[in-house]
Design a protein that fits this description.
about 425 residues; Rossmann fold; 4 domains; 4-stranded parallel beta sheet; about 20% strand
Length: about 425
């Protein structure tokens, strides 16, 4: 069962970050802005943003003890119920912060999991979210049993608490094993589904969360994939057959968006979804051209793709929201830096034909020209060849048609089998 984290009403929150020697103050301010958006998606209104500049994270509190005392006072003054931290907290840090602030403490991973839990609709997404939640909970179980020492304290309480924790850990590990098996079965089903589509080129939409991937899929396929101006609106992969021209179609899949500081256990849990990216022939890296942190978002996606072991896969950089850019020199600079690239507006349909042409050219670069002779009366074979190949020339003699066609790598094997069967007739 997936842990239900849906809230009945919006909570009042504070977000907290630390700029260490590894990040600049400006970067961390941008991270906090993103954390505010995540909090909004989860159902919280952020009243304050707290940023501390330190050489390193405080091992006991993440931030300095003085800042914790300030946070505690702000929570009391403004009736704050939730404090969200921009990095993963250790169990000890969470326990210490809860004791001093006396409010609910959440870190970035916990917040993302909360959003994923509320957005999961299909059986696959719910299974993936539950697996990620359990992996997240496992090292944090100790703080769930602090009530034992608070109630009784000292001698006689240690054993039962640890016994219960170990029992819970064993149950969670057993549940994790069951979920992994379940996801492996889902992955096998997906492989079977992909096998049924192997005659088409597979294209995956990848990109930072909320850059317009779902809108682009809708525009390309004239469909109605769910679109919302919130982070992580899409969790489940959605695939549509898209005609690139009269003779070329491709299967295009929308996937979950990437984000900075995306927890590794979350990526691992969503492996079956990300297999759509791994198995794709071409990646469309969708980018929000109007976003102030556009280049950093590009690097986040590129690094995630590299982590998946597919850095060498064919990529087209699709810069979305071109209608929001007034300085056209920006486009020229990006064109030279990111190749191949195309500039579109998914919402307004600007240059969608240009994107389709680029995809068609990339696919057709892998086509082989073949010639075969078919009987005039063999309507079934002629129709099948029209489906599997791009017919470029047809010559008629007394009883036969000599067909010249461009055949893709995807369908070449089937076409060759058809030719062999024709030779045997």
């Amino acid at each position: 069962m997936m842990i239900d984290l849906v809230k009945e009403k919006r909570e009042r929150a504070i977000v907290v970050g630390v700029a260490t020697r590894n990040t600049t103050k400006q970067q961390e301010e941008e991270y906090l802005d993103e954390l505010v958006l995540l909090a909004d998606t989860a159902g919280a209104d952020v009243l304050h943003k707290i940023l501390q500049v330190k050489d390193k994270f405080d091992s006991a509190y993440y931030i300095g003890k003085g800042k914790v005392e300030l946070l505690a006072q702000m929570c009391k003054d403004d009736n704050i119920s939730l404090v969200i931290f921009d990095d993963d907290l250790s169990p000890a840090q969470v326990r210490n912060l809860e004791e001093m602030i006396e409010r609910k403490i959440l870190d970035r991973s916990g917040l993302i999991l909360d959003i994923f839990a509320s957005r999961a609709k299909t059986n696959e997404a719910k299974t993936q979210v539950e697996l990620a939640q359990l992996n997240y909970m496992l090292p944090r179980l100790t703080r769930m049993w602090t009530h034992l020492s608070k109630q009784y304290g000292g001698i006689g309480t240690k054993g039962p608490g640890e016994t219960q924790i170990e029992t819970d850990r064993r149950m969670i590990r057993e549940r994790i094993a069951v979920l992994k098996v379940k996801l492996e079965k889902i992955a096998t089903q997906r492989t079977t589904q992909r096998g049924g589509r192997k005659e088409y080129y597979s294209i995956a939409l990848v990109g930072y969360t909320n850059v317009g991937k779902s809108t682009l899929l809708n525009t390309l396929s004239d469909s109605n994939v769910f679109v919302e101006n919130r982070l992580f609106a899409t969790l489940d992969p959605t695939t549509r057959l898209v005609a690139l021209d009269t003779s070329t179609s491709a299967m295009i899949t929308d996937t979950v968006g990437f984000i900075r500081k995306l927890p590794h256990h979350l990526v691992a849990s969503f492996k079956s979804t990300l297999e759509e990216v791994i198995e794709a022939d071409i990646l469309l890296h969708v980018i929000d051209l109007a976003h102030p942190q556009m280049e950093e978002q590009i690097e986040v996606v590129k690094n995630t793709i590299a982590d998946l072991g597919i850095a060498n896969k064919a990529v087209i950089y699709v810069f979305n929201k071109v209608d929001a850019i007034e300085d056209r020199s920006v486009i020229k600079n990006l064109q030279s830096k990111y190749e191949p690239s195309v500039f579109i507006s998914a919402h307004r349909g600007i240059n969608i034909l240009g994107l389709k042409e680029m995809l068609r050219s990339m696919i057709h670069a892998e086509f082989t020209e073949m010639t075969f002779t078919v009987s005039n009366a063999d309507y079934k074979t002629i129709s099948l060849l029209h489906d599997l190949a791009e017919i470029t020339e047809q010559k008629y003699d007394e009883n036969d048609i000599i067909i010249t066609a461009k055949v893709s790598d995807k369908t070449k094997e089937r076409v060759e089998k058809i030719i062999e069967s024709l030779k045997r007739k």
